[in-house]
Predict the structure of AraC family transcriptional regulator.
Amino acid sequence: MAWVESIQKAIEYMEQNIVEDMTIDSIAEQANVSPFHFQRTFAVLTEMTVGDYLRRRRLTLAGEELLTTDAKIIDLAYKYGYDTPEAFSKAFRRQHGVSPSEARKYKRKLQSYNRLIIQVTLKGAEPMKYSVVEKNAFQIVGIKREFACVAEEENVVGIPELWEEVNQNGTSDRLFQLNDGVVKGVLGVCGGVSDEQEKANVFDYWVATSYAGKVPEGMMSLEIPASKWAVFEVNGPMPAAMQNAWKRIFSEWFPSTGYEHAGTPEFELYTDENPNSPDLYSEIWIPIK
């Protein structure tokens, strides 16, 4: 359960410094993981970004102060991180459905988000089928795009659009043909975060396959380091089955084992079956230590 405790420690840090100008680096440091992996884990567990959580909590607390104190709206705006009263009012209305002045004047009910507590269910869940394997380093080839770690809405749209692109232009067919069998299938690889990308809060997402030969024209390569892997079976249509599997891995499997994420690239493995098939078989590969 130390893994859950480390995530909760980071959440407590956010709460204790809710009106301060925190960085994702300082938050992730509390959980003893990289900013990239903290943001990814947080989003899987809570279905919102770190930025979303902070914004919702700040506007919740601002609303409470608005209704229970005589604090000026402009002071609340600055206290909770907004440069202007106009920006504060816009964000306040988006969350609460009314402006700050309307909320105070008419004592309107506000949308409240309570402080987050990570709860993990370890009993009564369906069994997860997985194996632990060790593999030497191997090369993948394919195409990559850069995405912002914090732009969850952008990624929800952008990554599926990338898959649609490679499926329509024949790239995925070509990758299946290139596959050398080290890891069978086409991979969606998340990671490969350089120091510069860490600072810029971005990461690389690859659509690729394992291939040891010369890098084909129009593609790039990445070496996946030698690792011990937890390989999870995923059964069911995309994307619901994959999303559900990720959530169970972070909320059930990691907390109940002694393993930690190794911090190197992880990937989803796809076959050439119909992605809408209820019997679709896929896998999630996570490097562990």
The CA atoms of residues 162 and 168 lie 10 Å apart. The longest strand covers residues 138-148.
